[in-house]
Amino acid sequence: MGIIECKNVSKSFGEKVALDNVTVEIPKGKIFGLLGPNGAGKTTLIRIINRITIPNSGTVSFDGRPITQDDVEKIGYLPEERGLYRKMKVGEQAMYFAQLKGMSYRDAMTELKKWFVRFGIESWWNKKVEELSKGMAQKVQFITTVVHKPSLLILDEPFSGFDPVNAQLIREEILRLKSEGATIILSTHNMESVEELCDNIALINKSHVVITGGVDEIRHKYGNNNVELIYTAKQAVTSVEGVFKTLSDQDDSGRHTAVLALEDGVTGNQVLEAVIAQGLTVNSFKELVPRMNDIFIKLVTEEE
Question: Of 220, 255, 279, at which residue does a domain stop?
């Protein structure tokens, strides 16, 4: 059972269909990537989970029961449209958001101080938000999202506005929060982050779910049975009927990098035996699995 289960969720705004019979399950303790082009319906689904908007039909469950407003306190939501009060001091504002999520003044102060130390921003406490750069403000908003230790985090484009160093800091914090038991929904266009962080994904396009499942499972599903062979030899590897075809071979002073297309049902051992029989010295041999970016483009383009 997932921490969130959306079943047959539909939502329209006038004649515009934002979600059409969407069913997704967010597994507990995992990082779930919510993917899709702009306007696909991702933000509408996130707002329905947060009870900011109500679906026209379908159900949303939290921990196996219909979601209620009380459950929203167990959710940390970082929207893509960031929003901090520019005239307020950073510490004052962080305290305000923490208490909105049900924390006592004492607990909020204790946890916020820990986070400010962890992010190296203790000196920002009495600064006004308008004095911060976009990246600095992003750090503050990330902290206000996670400070109450929510069981579910929804992060919409969390790396937007960060330089590579701070983006890596946020990635490490996301993985740490997962290791402590949090479930995380990550809505992003960054496919590299999806491969690095996500256990499962759902791809939404034109208001409906195109594909959902484990990242590794999906990448293998859309593989084309190709392998990369790096070997040492004076001659190039040749195709073997019934085993593989050589698609390409690059020779760098006797060190070759070849791409082989395996015939259906052929095992890696059979390929290696056939290659070694040609007198080649194998340095490495690995399956070529497509990147999530390529799969995303393929599926969305096919939908178009």
Answer: 220
CATH code of 45's domain: 3.40.50.300
How many CB atoms sit inside 10 A of residue 183's CB?
22
- pLDDT, tens only, 134-183: 888 889 999 999 999 999 999 998 988 788 999 999 999 999 999 999 99
Query: 121: which 2 tokens?
Result: 């921003």
Q: What does the H/E/C string look like for the chain?
A: CCCEEEEEEEEEECCEEEEEEEEEEECCCCEEEEECCCCCCHHHHHHHHCCCCCCCEEEEEECCEECCHHHHCCEEEECCCCCCCCCCEHHHHHHHHHHHCCCCHHHHHHHHHHHHHHCCCHHHCCCEHHHCCHHHHHHHHHHHHHCCCCCEEEEECCCCCCCHHHHHHHHHHHHHHHHCCCEEEEECCCHHHHHHHCCEEEEEECCEEEEEEEHHHHHHHCCCCEEEEEEECCCCCCCECCCEEEEEEEEECCEEEEEEEECCCCCHHHHHHHHHCCCCEEEEEEECCCCHHHHHHHHHHHHC
Domain that holds residue 122: 4-220
* Cα–Cα distance, 302 to 238 (Å, whole number): 35
Are residues 204 and 46 in contact, defined by beta-carbon separation less than 8 angstroms? Answer: no
Query: pLDDT per residue over 230-286, tens digit each?
Result: 999 989 999 999 999 999 999 998 899 999 999 989 999 999 999 999 999 999 999
Kindly state whether residues 188 and 143 are assigned to the same domain: yes
Beta strand 57-62 pairing with 4-13: antiparallel
Q: 304 lies in a domain?
A: no
Per-residue pLDDT band for 189 (boundaries 50, 70, 90) equals confident
Do residues 109 and 229 share a domain? no
